[in-house]
Every structure is written in structure tokens, then in C-alpha cells.
Design goal:
heterotrimer; A alpha+beta (787); B alpha+beta (161); C alpha+beta (261); A: 787 residues; alpha+beta; Aldehyde Oxidoreductase, domain 4; Aldehyde Oxidoreductase, domain 3; 3 domains; 5-stranded mixed beta sheet; B: 161 residues; Ubiquitin-like (UB roll); DNA polymerase, domain 1; 5 helices; 16% strand; elongated; Ald_Oxase/xanthine_DH-like (chain A)
Chain lengths: 787, 161, 261
Amino acid sequence: MPKDGGIGSPTLRREDIRFLTGNGKYTDDINIHGQAYAYFVRSDVAHGTINSIDASAAEGMPGVAKVFTAKDFEGVGGVPCGWQVTDRFGEAMQEPKHPVLAEGKVRHVGDPIAVVVADTLEQARDAAEALDIDITELEPVLNMKDALKDGATKVHDDLTSNLCYDWGFVEENREAVDEAIKGAHHVTTLELTNNRLVANPMEPRVAVGDYDSSNDEHTLYTTSQNPHVIRLLMGAFVLGIPEHKLRVVAPDVGGGFGAKIYHYAEEAFCTFAAKALKRPVKWTSSRSEAFMSDAHGRDHVTKIELAMDKDGKFLALRTDTHANMGAYLSTFAPSIPTWLHGTLMAGNYTTPLIYVNVKAVFTNTVPVDAYRGAGRPEATFQLERVVDKAAREMGIDPVELRRRNFITEFPYATPVAVEYDTGDYHATMDKLLELSDHAGFDARAAESKKNGKLRGFGIAHYIEACGIAPSNLVGQLGARAGLYESATVRVNATGSISVMTGSHSHGQGHETSFAQVVSEMIGIDASQIDIVHGDTAKSPMGMGTYGSRSLAVGGSAMVRATEKIINKAKKIAAHLLEAAEGDIELKDGAFTVAGTDKSVAWGDVTLAAYVPHNYPLEDIEPGLEETAFYDPANFTYPSGAYGCEVEVDPETGKVTVLGFTAADDFGNIVNPMIVEGQVHGGLAQGIGQAMIENCAYDDQGQLLSGSYMDYAMPRADDLPMFTVDHSSVTPCTHNPLGVKGCGEAGAIGSPPALVNAVIDALQRGGHDVTHIDMPLSSDRVWAAMNS
Amino acid sequence: MTNVTMTVNGKSVSGNVEGRTLLSSFLRDDLRLTGTHVGCDTSQCGACVVHVDGLSVKACTMLAAEADGAEVKTIEGMANADGSLSVIQQAFQDHHGLQCGFCTPGMVMTAAALLKENPKPSETEVRDYLEGNICRCTGYHNIVKAIMAASGQDVSAIAAE
Amino acid sequence: MHNFEFVKPGTVADAVAALKGDEAQALGGGQTLLPTMKQRLAAPETLVALSGVDEMKGICKDDEGRLCIGGGTTHAAVAADGSYPALSAMASHIGDPAVRNRGTIGGSLANNDPAACYPSAVLASGATVTTNTREIAADDYFQGMFSTALEEGEIITEVKFPIPEKANYQKFVQPASRFALVGVFVAKFADGVRVAITGASEEGVFRWTEAEEALSANFSPAALDSLSVSGEGMISDLHGTGAYRAHLIKVMTGRAVSAAA
């Protein structure tokens, strides 16, 4: 039975009340007296030279405060990249400058050229039309392979080529892998793309800059997943504002999915302009603007080869990927196709030899960075697709082929430099087959056939690495930041608690689930505990929320800080009870002397800490507030088995997802209701990628899917009810809660399961189709069936 | 500028608007009713759904001037008179039908419109009716469940996990 | 949006007068026009809202048994009517519920989006488009993508639909916009069958005359077996090639015939 309110309970979310009544406070709800509005004038060509910008007419228009261009940003830094990848020859990646406003050249449709700031947004837009911008169009660089050819047009004239880096992993294995593939009984090869996506949190990005000249303090309100990271990057690298003069607030944030991790030019602009104009400056992205200014995700072109012996035992894996960086390096872009992708290529399997090559390429497109899963979906997709294809080529059932190669002993060191601490892949596979009624599939397929439809079932088993860590290791891998998390637990005199966390909730429900943890540890009601996040003035330096890290890393920091609180409170209780500290037990919010009925309530101890009249002042300080920084020893490794059942209409190619089952191992669970919600959302995004979502450019670099008219967002009628299970539990061995992370799993495991299901349906229908690139839109499926 | 007067959540309000002022802007900027959200510019996401004279509309695709004289209801007017959550709002909390909360006001307003038209909708009918409301967080599973529960149907049989 | 003067006349006559001004444009439900204006792709100086013209709203039958729908009638009202079931069913799937509460038949027809649903119903039904000045037969009304027989300042006051013996509309949706990737309206009258296709052609809505002839002789999906549609002249985009759309026309026509009631 779940305990009421503690760890394991499906506690209802406290934050829901404000969201359900219209009382949420999102960044666009913030209006500061006297604020001006910024309108960004963006490039409508993919690649061009800026010859001139004449703002004189615009500056004279009603309400206009100023028109900003790159000239106003002379001496200001570029938007920095937070990760430096070293290539396979030991050289640092090529890293171009990313100016706040375009300097001399525009490099993608949407690249900001100028900003009009005016009293109202419509005045700013009216004036923007009066800007005279002269641009000479250049040939756009779009196809990654063409971009690497000798003599190709360059996105950045000051770089030697369009190659950001050529990364090999593990470089020492390269020859051994080549040899193993040459001599293998069978090699399955697959060429595929991982389609470019747009994260599309429903709240578009917003930035409000404010400046207080009386004490030279800047405040930025922004839609961020990690306000401290923005403060560091923007303060130290772009605007040169010391941290104690810069406050970054990310209030309620309407979804992130990765796209709100990064430091964006608009944030720096509003902060900069607020000081320049001595008035608050607000920018609110329109959805159309978001499509050309939010970092995109995925966009890999890959060839993967899997070598097997005659029994289907995996001998070696070689994969070769071109990863699109877009026109500039977004904050964590270089790390995604490398350290978050190559390290996962072992999957759940004992493949002894693996070599991953990644060429990261600059093109005249929007920068690409992490999107839910980030690198891990790309790894899982190619691996689980090639395993499925291999099963068909080898004549082995896809479940059986996976089982033959599952890792079963832990800890397990993979040939791609990570060590899985724990897992049980047969257990999740068993659970999937049971919950999806795999045994009854043939009967259901027969029923579909009677109705003229093709039914298919597809499986994928995934592994992911969450809570990227530890800091000293990631530093060696090129991270320009630490990856710890922080928490301050502030106990008030009357016993209520404020927990200031460095992680950030933008839909994940931390205000509820984090309070459950502290409530469980101390034994007081969760209603006495508030979780505070999203404000650099309140929380200690933290790294924010991404990579399914919040509970595993941020929750662990909170546990450590709470342990410190409990230790100190026990000392106070020992004094009050006139007992030895070692005899004090904390249970249900009261301190007792073991084996006696002597006890003191939590509130009496906390009061004593702040009104220290009867208090051991010679031994301990008054007050009850503790901070902890937690730096994990390893990643966590959630895994799971996913099954998708589809029906294909052979006349139209339309795919209908009839059912989707996810059997995950997330380790211990704090709030199962929230965990299930996270999986549902991940599944929807993964199914969206596999079935309908596609960010496409034409041959001139114009965005074809620049609004919801052409970028297909999954809607309620595109999706089925999901079956999700998290009863397979192998707790993480190295964090205090034994938790692994659940935010991205759904988006990682679902695309290959869906594609495998469609291929299964087509093959059962007699169509010799071995692969279709995502999204499996009806026209593509129909074309594949009729080719 | 034109003067408009309308009843919003039971209160008479008026203001001067430009011809181009959208109802969503009037609600958010003039009345400071920021629960109505704007998530797109092509009239598709539905975060801005409000009721005008009892019918759901997208407030970002209606001029404030067109609502002159109308009865408007927004998310801020959906709770019970004593401030407690209405049946629909409570069902959204009970069934975890929201995560980031941004699409939620539009979802609640659309759900209310649906249940007025169709007090006991099937799962398919709920999904069809939500065609104009996009949620990026929940995968809709729990939204559908919440709406069916709010209609008094037993949702325990729906795959809960 | 560029700013404009907003006027809301109460009669057709006043609306017509207001539309005589420079750069004046009529506003129906605004479900397409307002997003277009937000993108600053349309910039009228005066916007003449038709929502106050009560004489343009409502549904009735005339002496010939035709269903007469006022130009200012919303999709939701048509969906709820039911006296021409296929038409109501079609209207019940335009956009989404909130869009249907604002969008009007007159607005949709005046815009003539190549992927809109209404044009196919009007054309397949052989309806008559009535304006403040004249009556226009459906076959004369549609003149290509976003192009109609309407003159400057002319307002659709009513659309008169003969009610067929059997009819059905099949929409294959474009997954993003939810407009028709291909929409087929089939209407069977005593004197023959009309088939109108939306979403597919670069020329906007059109009649598939070969199918009409075949179905007039034999109103069954099998009558279409020997027919095919060429992909030439069909829209090719991110969501489907011309060949795919051409293929869907035949499939959806067959389904419409099967489902026609």
C-alpha cells in the first residue's frame, strides 16, 4: 500500500491548483511598469551577406525607442557553447562565433538581424517594416554530405570547412571492429535518417529584461529549464555581468523538452537593452518565430552494421553518423551526437566490439541541440532497427534474438566506456509480452486481415543514461560546466520547511514529489514543506533540469541536505531530552530516546534552534538550515521493453497506433502517478516523431514546416490509451534514493517500436519493405508499398 | 479606438481597444486575466479557448470588438463560487491531466463545452472533440481520462498504467 | 496585425455600403482571415464584420426543397441541422469545435482555400451561391485556388443546396493543419451523380467527371475500378506527392460511394 504522501504514494500535485484556476505565473504573465517591447527582424534567406541596414525611417516611427543591430553589440561576447568535443585526431572541434545579432552574414532563416524596441509590440512590428535591409543571397549549405565535399560553400568563412568535428569512439577499437565485421557469419546493414524535430513546448519562449540603476542590478525573467546556467553563460561569456549583479528568474515554465535548456540571443538582448534604454524590455516569441529560433532536435543520417555469428550472437557493431549542428553551436550541441549517443550504442546487449564515428556538420539551418532523449533516441533507434532487421534476415524471432544477446550480469562495463550498475532486461521483456498480450497477436492480426487491414507488432528494448555525471569525468569529455545539483533545506522556527533546489520544474511536478521525499525522511506532513525553484536569488547554484536528472541528482542533493538537518536536529533533541545523541530516533515527526517514551516534537526542536534559550550553544550553532551539493558517481541506467501494435490501411498507407505498451525499470519510484504521466508524454513525442512530425527545409533553406499548419503535432485522436508498467525494479546502486529517471524514456524507446511494427505489418501483408524513414506518414508508407 | 463593454466571468468590464486588438490580448493585457494563454498564431493549439455567449472560441482568433456586448467566461471563472475546484478542474487534478499547465486552461474550457453538448462522451468522442487543443506533455491519456471521469463515467477500466 | 477601422453593420445593405470604402474587407468568422492578418499577409484598412447581420444567419428550406443556409451561418449550426446529413457531417469535421463556432459558410466559400471542405460540398451538390447582387451556380463560382466569381465588395448572403438522394463526404486529413489532404464529396441525384474533389488540385476544387459518368451509370465503388486519376496538376508538398493525392482521390471516392446514405 502506498503511504499517504510519502515515497511511493501517487500524491496529487499541489501545483495543479494554480494551473487549473488560471493562476499560474508564466514569464509572459509578467509585465513591469514602463516596459518596452522587442520585435526581432529575422533573416528570410538561409545564407547571405548583409550589405547595409538603414534604420533611420524606422527610428522615427511612433513609439520607437531604438533599433538595435550588431553595431550596438561591439565588444559584447557571442552566445557561448558549453561543450568542446575533441576529434579522433586529438584536435578541438571548430567553434564559430555566434553573435547576438548577425554580424555581416545571415546563416539561417530566422537568424536575427535587428531588433526594434517600441512602446507596444505592434508599433515595433510596424517600424520593423520600415527597416531597409540589403542582403546579397549566397548559396545555402543544406545537405550534410555535400557540405563536406572539397570546395563546398562554407557556412563560416573563418573556419577551414563545414566540419565541426570528426569523432571516433572508441578510436582504439576501430580496426578490431573492421576485422570482426569482415569475418562475421552475417552482417546486417541499415541506412537511415533520424528526422529533424522541433520541441514545441506549448509555451513559446519569453524574456523580460529589467535593470535597476540604483544598485546596478540586472534581472532577467525567462522561460528556462536552468536559470543558473543562463546566469553563468550570459553573465560571464556574453554581457560581462558578475553573478552578484545578475538575477535570473524562470517562473512557471510551460514545458521545455530540451529547447529551454540553452542560452539564447533573445535573453542576452533583453538584459542588454534594458540597461541601454533604462526601461524593462520584453520579448515574446510567436509560434512561427519559435520554429526558426528555438533549437531543433535530432537530424542524423546514419549507416549501421551489425555483425553476428551463426546463432545470432552479436560480434561487432559499426555505426557512421552525420549529425547536423545547424548554423551555430547551440549550448550543448556538440555533446549530443557524441557523449550522449556513442556511449549508448551497446544498448542492452553484450556486443563486445563497437565503433562509432560521428561527423558533425555546419549547415544553413537552425541550430540543433538536445530534444527529449538527446542522442539516446538516435542511438536506440538505429540499434533497435538494425536488430529487428537482423532478426528477419537471420530467421530468428526478434524477441528471441534480443534475449540471446541481453546483458545479464551487473555491473557491466560496455565497450563504449560506460558501466551499467544494474538492470534486468529479461524481466522487462517478460512484462511487455504479458501486458501487450503478445500471445494473442496472431488472432488479432487475422481479424484485421478480414477487415482489409494489415496488423503488425514491433518491439524495442532501450537503455538510457540519465543524470549525466560525474563532473570530473564530464570535464575530461569536454563539458565546460559541472553536473552536480544543489539543495538548501531551510527549516523555519515553527517547523515548516522551504527547500530551495537548483533543479527546475516545468511540468514534472517537483513541488509535489520532492516534498514527498522530505516528508518521508522527517515524518512531517508534506503540506508543511514548500519546494522553491527557478530563481537564482533563492536557490544555491544548480544546473537545472534536463537529461532525466532532477530526482536522481537534485533529489539526492535534497536528501543529503535533509540528512544534515536531521543530524543537527538530533543533537538539539538530545540536549532537550537530556539523552545521548546516539540514542535519539526520529520517527513520524518526533524525536524519541530509544527504548523510552521520552520524546520531543519536531516543532519543539526547530523552535529551540531559532529561540536558543535552552540550547547547547557551546557545541552547535543556532538555526536549522543546510545546503548540500551532490555530484553523482555514475550515470543512472533506466531501461525498458516497448511494444507497439499498429494497423496499416493498405489502400492509403495510413498507420493507426492501436496500442502501446511500455514496461520500464526506473529503479525506485517516488510518485507513480507522475512517473506514468512522464512516460505517457514521452511516448506521445516518440510516436509523433515516428509517425507525423517532420521539420523539413526546401532546397533554398526555407523552412517548409514553419507553423502548426505544416508541422504535425500529435493530437488526441492520433494516439491510443497507453499501457505503462514500472513494476520491474532494480534500484540504482549509487544514489541514496535508488532512482534512475523517467522523463525521456518514452521518447527513446517508442520510435523504433513503432517503425518495427509497421515493417512487421507490411511484411505480414507480403510487401518486401525492410525500412521506411521517419516519419511514417501515410504517403511514405503507401509509396514504400507501391515501389 | 473603440469602446467595448462585455461581461467577463460575471463582471461587467469595458475598455478602449484598437480595431486589431484580439480578445486574447484584451483579456490578458487590459483585464490582466492571464490564465488565457497564447500558444500559436495559426488558431490551432487551443490554449486560448474561452467561452463567448456559451460557445467555445479561440480568443486569439476573435477581435475584442467582436465580443462587445457578449458574455465571456475564462478559466478564472471556472471554479465553484466558494473557490473550490469545479468537477472538471478536480478531475484534471485527480487524474493527473496536466503537467506544465500551459494548455490546461484551454483544455478545461473545451472539456466544459464538450460536456455541455454531450454529457457522457465516449473515449473516441472526447479525442475527436479535443482536435483543436494541443498538449505536448501528457500524451492526452490522462486528459481523456479526466474528462470522462468528470462526466461521471467509471474510468477505472481504462488502462491506468 | 496592421491596424484597421472596425465596423459592424446590422444589415446587408449597410455592409455593402461599408465595403465600398478603400481597402475594405468583409470579416466572416475570421478563422482564416485573422491568422492571415496576424502574419501581416493581409492588411485591410476597414474590416467589415458580418456577424451583426442577422438576415444572413440561419437555415431553412425553400419552395424547391433546397436547403438555404445564410452566408453568416456557422459550421456548428450547419453541423447541428441534419436535414442534409452528408453536409452536416462534413461541417461537423471542419477545423475543431471552437473554429466551428466562429467560422461561417460564406467566409469559407469567399476564401476558397484549395484544401477547405465546403467548396467540395457546394460543387458536388450543384448548389447556388447567392450574393447581394445575384445568384451564381456552383460550376461558375469556383475559379481556382483562392479565386472565385465574387466581385469586389460582393457578399455571400445565402447558399442554396439541392438535397441529393444520397451523399457522403470523405476527408483524408493532412496531419498538421487538419485540412483535407484530399476530400471527396459525392452526391447522387435522380438525374445523375456529381463528384467534387478538394485538397488535391493546384486549380482548387474540381469535379471528377469520369467518376460522375461511371457512377451515374452504376452507383457502386466497382464502377470506379477502371478509372484512374493522373498526378499531373495535383499538389505536391511535404504531406504527399501529386501521385499520392491522385491515388487518394480514387480511394476516397470509392469510400464515399460505399458510405453514401
